[in-house]
Each structure stands twice: as C-alpha cells, then as structure tokens.
C-alpha cells in the first residue's frame, strides 16, 4: 500500500485520540499468569524498568490481596517514579483502604457487570451492582484518589446496563472508564462497534483491557485506539490470566509502524525489557513471538537472506534496532550461497570456490538431517575445510579391542598428537565407551572435552550396515563442534567422528578468530 492510500484510510476510518496512554499491568494481571509469583524485589526491579521505558501508568498489584502486595505497592510508590503508580481494588471499602495504605493516589476499581458475574459470582441485582460501584467510586474520590473504573466482563454485559453503570460512576466522579474484555471474546468489528458507541455517549476518557483468548488482544486494542480509546492496558510479553493480555511491545510497535504514533515509550528498550521480565517470571517467549521472539529478525531461506543482505526492508517490517533486538542469519537446509558468503565474511574465513562448495554441501546435508547449523559449527566446518590442506592435529594410528563375557571391554588406542605418538588403554561399559575413554586420556594435556551428543545410524539395514556416527563435542570455553564419520565398524566410526570434532575444536582454538 502506498502512503497516500494509508492517509485516505486513516482519514475515513479513524478517530484517534489526541493523546494515547499506556497502562502496564505486568505486575498485576501479568503476575496472575498461572505459575508466576514475583517477590517484592522482583516487582521493584520490573517497576523501575517499566518507568525507564516510559509507560504512563504502572499497575503494581492488588494491595488488599496480601501483605507482600501491600508492601511492594508501597515501596514502588516510594521510589517517586515518573510513571503513575496504580493499585487494583474490588468495589469494597477494605480494598480501597489498602490502596490508600500503600500511599497510592490512583486506584483501578472494578465490579463484575455481566449477567454471569452478577448472578453466579456476586449474587447481586443490577441495582445493587450499580450502587456498590457508585459507593466505591465516591469513597475513593472522597479520599483524594484518581479513579479508573472497570466494568469487569464488560463485553458480555447488556449494552444498556453497561452504559447505565458507566453513567452513574461518571456522575460519582470516575476519571477513566475501563472496558475489560475479561475472557477475550471480542473481534475487531465488534470492538469497533462497542468503542464507537461508548465514545459517542461519554466524554470521560476510556481505557481498554483486552485478553488474548482468541489471539486477538493486540488487534482489538489497535481497533479500539483507532476508534478513539485513550488508553491501552498491556503487559510485557503479553503475559496474564490464561492466554494473557495485549502485549506492550506489539501494540507500541504497531502504533509506531502503522501510524507513526510514538507514545512516551522508548522502543529501543523493548527487547531487553522482554528478556528481563521473561527471566524474572520464568515465562520464556516462543521463538515466533512478534517483536521479541528469537526468530523475529532471523532469516534462513536463500531468497530472503539475499533480499535482506541487499536491503533489510525487503523481509523485515521494522529494523531490529528499533526495539533493541538483533538480526540473525541462520544456516540450514534452506540456506543460499549469499547467506553463507556473508557469514564467512563475518568470521573472516576466506575459502576458494572448491572449498566453498564443500562447506555449502555439508551445511545442506546437516540441514537435511534436521540439524540447525550454529555459527560454531560453521566455523568448525569451514576451518576444517581450510585446514584439510594442512595436517589435522590429531590422527588415529592404531586401535585394539578386547571384548567378551568375563572381561571388562578394553580399548587400546594409539594417536599421533602434533606429530608425537602416544598410546594408552582404558575400559568402559562397552567397546565404544572404552575407546572414547582412552582418547580422552591421551588428549587430556591438549584439551578437556565433553561429548554432548552421540548419534548412531545404520545407513542400510542388515548386519553389514554402514555405521553413520554424528557427535557434538564441547570444550571448557564453551566452543562446540560437530563431527561425523561413516565406517563399516561402529567403534571405528565413533572414534573417527569424535576425532573429527576434536580436531575442529582444536582448529577453532588455534585460529585467530
Ligand atoms: O480482565 C479483567 O476483567 C480484569 C479486571 C480486574 C479489570 O483484569
Ligand atoms: Zn484482566
């Protein structure tokens, strides 16, 4: 779509508020994510980060719900953050008092308004529901609080009753009307109808609090803002009850990218904020999570990488720098020559055409085996190829095996290490284990290795099958390397695969990169 088309669409279909605020509820609704429990210290650290990022309001908790909640709310308030600190309260005096005890001056008070909540949870008539809400708002206002009122389960509430309760709480002094989609049933079209109706009937600023049960929270929140909503409730990484809430990073970036709306949020901190909250909550993001997932700016296919290398906008909607993330070129079965060339350039590895083809084919073959080729693998494969003209540091010079029912499997291995021959014997649970133990003994002065993965496949069926062994070894510095060998003897294939990976690790260690 061209810029002029977008401008026309905006004019015809949007009713953007002059100012749009972000209320982050990671520390309240986000903490209601099943399995998440934050300490007072965790909450303080997250609140400080949210304040640095620039969200307008931080809902720090539900002070009446526990001593810890009261303490953390009070301590966060005492930090004098730039963001407004908000406390949640049911429409009951005790809850409002807890918000006052925490020294907060902004309350988010709510009552269930849908028939389901009135009949099965509150057991209140419509009249009592309204009078309870009004009394709560009046009480909070009388105590000097700014009041945001939520009609819980608003989206399953009769429209006329919803308007009635909103009208009465506005008369009682509510400063903000919040519309929670408590069980996430909205769609963009229904959102549009609801928000447009509310905006044309109320002058009080409105806020939306949408859940993500159908994966539509961000789309619905964006629609609500397009129709005039003044504030969005969000959480970092979209965490929250069940499938979560509207995600901070998604809505901020969507507003920025679709409409150039910058808000007060520093987008360049969004990725680090996501990582931080992920670490403290223990909720790891899926790789395909928009904006902050590992794959948000990762590219593997040859066509895409080619485009990206020429101009990153070809396959990226925004630059990773905008949100503090980074671009990743991944090697695998879809890798094209351009991606490989750029990676080799990055690591200053200069291959001739023949060597390049060999490395390229090895990467494709590993990809076909379902392996993702890491940067360490690539370095090892490429350096081995470069070094194949040179001598490999370690060579197998001899192997003897002793197996049987009454003796421990024993292997005698002779290696040439940097031109010096060494021989030793060791035992193990089987012949492969015994041989690998003997190798470890022989190379221990040269390097300390760990066998991280060992995979044995028979290339064709039958007792004369070729053994195809694939291993991953690592050294103490955390370098990893793959090794592979095919042999008609399982022990031999295992030893050669392990030596292959050890030689690559040594080449990495001894190379300049
Ligand atoms: O989802 C919801 O309805 C809530 C209320 C407390 C506003 O979180
Ligand atoms: Zn909620």
UniProtKB/TrEMBL annotation:
Keywords: Amino-acid biosynthesis, Branched-chain amino acid biosynthesis, Transferase
A molecular-function term among this protein's GO annotations: 2-isopropylmalate synthase activity
Keyword Transferase: yes
GO BP field: L-leucine biosynthetic process
Residue stretches making up the Pyruvate carboxyltransferase domain: 20-271
CDD domains for the chain: DRE_TIM_IPMS (cd07940)
Cross-referenced SUPFAM superfamilies: 2-isopropylmalate synthase LeuA, allosteric (dimerisation) domain, Aldolase
One Pfam family from the record: HMGL-like
Pathway entry: Amino-acid biosynthesis
Highest taxon of the lineage: Archaea
Gene3D superfamilies: 1.10.238.260, 3.30.160.270, Aldolase class I
SMART domains per the UniProt record, alphabetical: LeuA_dimer
Transferase listed as a keyword: yes
InterPro entries named in the record: 2-isopropylmalate_synth_dimer (IPR013709), AIPM/Hcit_synth_CS (IPR002034), Aldolase_TIM (IPR013785), LEU1_arch (IPR011830), LeuA/HCS_post-cat (IPR054691), LeuA_allosteric_dom_sf (IPR036230), PYR_CT (IPR000891)
NCBIfam families reported in the protein's UniProt record: LEU1_arch, PRK00915.1-2
Family of this protein: Belongs to the alpha-IPM synthase/homocitrate synthase family.
Subunit structure: Homodimer.
Protein name in UniProt: 2-isopropylmalate synthase
